[in-house]
Amino acid sequence: MMKKIKIFILSLILHPTLFFLFRTNRWVVVGYDKFKDAIQSDSSIMLCSWHERFLYAVYFLKIYKIKNVSAVSSTHPDSQIMAHFLKRSTFSLIKGSSTRGWDNVIKKMIKTLQNPKSIVAITNDGPKGPPRIAKLGSYKIAIKSKSKIISISCSSTNFWTVSSWDKLRIPKPFGTIYIEFSDPMIIEDNNPSEASLLTGFLNQNLNHLDKQI
């Protein structure tokens, strides 16, 4: 019980702090038309990012008031702080992880993505890494649900780095945040190296953005 109370209190502090940090930055968004076109199509979307940058993606979706977004949230105790924050961002949560109840998460993701208007935001390197290496499951789910895979790459001119496995980035105030959307990934069914293809796709887009800053 005490742990749950502590998590709840920390989440209350986190929300206004992140609001201040993200709101005091200037935003530069590239490729938003690609994302809007995908939203208006008759296919659901798997919006992909790496764990280290996912806070930027969450706040973009919040500030731009993107609807019908579900986020995969780990059941790990530390991740529950972020789960409280996501709830306040009006996201629907799909709870689970690759080590705890992943089968249930897969079923919920596929069911959600059956709605052509739905968006599932996912960190493809999972709740524990290794960083910037995609898990195979997300690629297979996109194929099964016939969803569009779109990369949201995020960076900023100034940031703090958390001493965690993913080196989570938190923007410092009064800088510039950059968001870039990719074209939908070309999905190759029955390819033996699907996870490698997704890893390469996400890293290529993020590396391209980082080089522009």
Model description:
With about 210 residues, this protein is α/β, with parallel strands linked by helices. Helices cover about 45% and strands about 20% of the residues. It has 7 helices and 9 strands. The chain has a 7-stranded mixed β-sheet with strand order 1-9-6-2-5-3-4, sandwiched between helices. It has a two-stranded antiparallel sheet with strand order 7-8. Strand 7 and strand 8 form a beta hairpin. The longest helix has 22 residues.
Question: What can be said about this structure in brief?
Answer:
With 213 residues, this protein is of the alpha/beta class. Helices cover 43% and strands 21% of the residues.
Q: Report the helical percentage.
A: 40-55%
Strand content: 15-25%
- Subunit organisation of the chains: single chain
Q: What is the strand tally?
A: 9
Overall pLDDT metric: 86
| General shape | globular
Number of alpha- plus pi-helical segments = 7
Low-pLDDT ranges: none
* Structural class computed from helices and strand pairing: alpha/beta
List keywords for this structure.
213 residues, alpha/beta, seven-stranded mixed β-sheet, two-stranded antiparallel sheet, 7 helices, 43% helix, globular
Detail the topology: elements first, then pairings.
Blueprint: H1 2-23, E1 26-30, H2 32-40, E2 45-49, H3 54-63, E3 69-73, H4 79-88, E4 92-95, H5 102-113, E5 119-123, H6 136-145, E6 148-156, E7 159-161, E8 169-171, E9 176-181, H7 194-212
Parallel strand pairs: 1-9, 2-5, 2-6, 3-4, 3-5
Antiparallel strand pairs: 6-9, 7-8
Helix pairs in contact: 1-4, 5-6, 6-7
